[in-house]
Amino acid sequence: MACAGPAGGRQRVSMQEHMAIDVSPGPIQPIRLISDYFPHFYPFLEPVLRAPGSQTMLAPAIHSASQLQPNPEPEGDSDDSTALGTLEFTLLFDADNSTLHCTAHRAKVRMKAAVLGWDKPQASAFIFCFQGLKPLASGSVDTYVKANLLPGAIKASQLRTRTVRGTRGPVWEETLTYHGFTYQDAGRKTLRLCVCEDSRLRRRRAPPLGELRVPLRKLVPNQARSFDICLEKRRLTKRPKSLDTARGMSLYEEEEMEAEVSGEERGRILLSLCYSSQRGGLLVGVLRCAHLAPMDANGYSDPFVRLFLHPGSGKRSKYKTSVRRKTLNPEFNEVGHSWENPEFFYAGHREELAQKTLLVSVWDYDLGTADDFIGGVQLSNRASGERLRHWHECLSHSDRRLELWHLLDSVPPQLGD
User: Fold this and answer.
1) Rounded Cα–Cα distance for residues 354 and 64 (Å)
2) Nearest 5 degrees, angle CA 362-CA 400-CA 346?
């Protein structure tokens, strides 16, 4: 291609120059980088498109934003590899009263800086700016804490806090107490804590927002220990083939169902014994039961307790408590043959009572059918372990009330005449 030159001569122009002149007349500008169209996020700044040479204009604003951002949150003993959040709680094993106290303090959201590609100051500023937003997954901000002791029957050990509504940083400050918790439980059980959202407006229960597990063997008796641990996703296990009876049933289930099936305990009972020198007989108190085996289709039982002093005859040797409906942890503090005297009484001298056996059995009440046996315990001089110690110390000391937890046997007692 040719065109007229300044001296009237013809000057040849290449095809590349011709296309450059037609498409971009005037001086050719450098092409912008892709990062110019996607600037970094800086809190408290209006989103602007960075032009070449405008780096000096943003420097004072970035410095002011870094002054307003909060200090990074303490790491505690949590793992920074999760973004589900953290839970603060305290555990106390009261060995004198055989109880485990779990105090749920608060939960908080902690974003992972590596996921967003930011450094820690930028991540801290992001958390500060977006506090109060609802969770992206479900939009719910109504949360509570659910606790379980594993292994064991899930419904027997399930406790929960109240629901805190309208916040992403819920504060409960509520204590959950497990009665009948012994040294043996501390050595082999694990406490599972789940942060759940309230599904009162849903047909199906929502999955937990996150969970954590604490082996209780690390606890020191009568010494409180505080935790700040990151939440994890719930664990799933493959469903046994024996349970695949319904079409469309999920192939996986929560691990808690497997723990419930493999539970071996029938439960435990807290009894109080006292030989009264004034009344001349044995006072028996049925205080409470814990972690009973479920006998009904709803996963619960309607328990009551029977007492029988063997050998004996007549109504004075047999007693029965009232029925507690739909529970696996019944409390029997106000039971007996009269409200004025809530304890059961067996008259007799200590030498005479020492030759007898106290049979304590826990039953599930069924209307119109035979009651189901849950478990029982026998206290006598022929017993062993804690049962023998409880019976011996009671009859050896007058007017001394002794309370002790006993594990229930799964076989009903078989006594001769």
Assistant:
1) 83
2) 50
CB atoms within 10 A of CB 327: 15
pTM of the predicted model as reported, rounded to 2 decimal places: 0.66
Pair of tokens at residue 411? 């076989």
CA proximity to 195, closest of 144, 132, 246, 240: 144
Phi and psi at 154, nearest 5°, equal -65, -45
Residue 399, classified by CB atoms within 10 Å of its CB into exposed (0-12), middle (13-18) or buried (19+), is exposed
Residue 227 near residue 214, CB atoms below 8 Å: yes
- Given a cut of 80, whether residue 243 has pLDDT beyond it is no
CA distance 26 to 20: 9
Question: Span 149-159, mean pLDDT?
Answer: 88
318-320/344-347 β-pairing: unpaired
- Within 329-369, strands assigned E span 344-347, 357-364
**Residues found in the chain:** 417
Residues whose CB falls within 8 Å of the CB of residue 268, separated by 6 or more in sequence, listed in order: 180, 289, 290, 291, 405, 406, 407, 408
249: helix, strand or coil: coil
The residue-averaged pLDDT of 40-66 equals 42
3 forms beta bridges with: 11
The CB-side HSE value for 203 (13 A sphere, CA atoms) comes to 0
Tokens of 240: 């046994």
Q: Which residue has the higher pLDDT, 118 or 364?
A: 364
User: Please, is 104 exposed, middle or buried when counting C-beta atoms within 10 Å of its C-beta (0-12, 13-18, 19+)?
Assistant: buried
199 three-class SS: coil
